[in-house]
Amino acid sequence: MANVESPAGLILDIRHSTFDTGIMQCPICKIPVDIATAGKKGSTFPFCSDRCRTIDLARWLDGKYQIPVLPDDESHGGDGEPDER
Ligand SMILES: [Zn+2]
Fold first, then answer.
1. What is the pLDDT of residues 46-77, one digit of tens each?
2. Could you state, in order of their start, the residue ranges of all structural domains in the chain?
3. In 3D, which of 59, 31, 64, 58 has the Cα closest to residue 45?
4. Which of 8, 52, 78, 84 has a CB 3.0–4.6 Å from the CB of 47, allowing a cystine?
5. Residue pair 32/24 in contact by the 8 Å Cβ criterion
6. Could you give the angle at the alpha carbon of 66 between the alpha carbons of 65 and 69, nearest 5°?
7. Which residues are placed with Cβ below 5 angstroms of ligand 1, an ion?
8. DSSP class per residue in 39-52
């Protein structure tokens, strides 16, 4: 009766088994990628192909992965005032 698993623990378990099997999913299209290709010449790891790597790079350049510093572009009051209604 002591086998309680939290959702977070379950996610960690999935990640662990990913490396255990040597198969990882392409971050872009989710196609299984063989970890054994990592570090090899011309490898696109962790992407399945050069195309997906380019897509990922384009996302970076597009600023989609930027960390939002200040959500200041919509002028919602601003100074942390509780906005209840
Ligand atoms: Zn891919």
1. 899 999 999 999 988 887 656 667 766 665 55
2. 19-62
3. 31
4. 52
5. yes
6. 145
7. 26, 28-29, 31, 48, 52
8. TSTT--TTSSSHHH
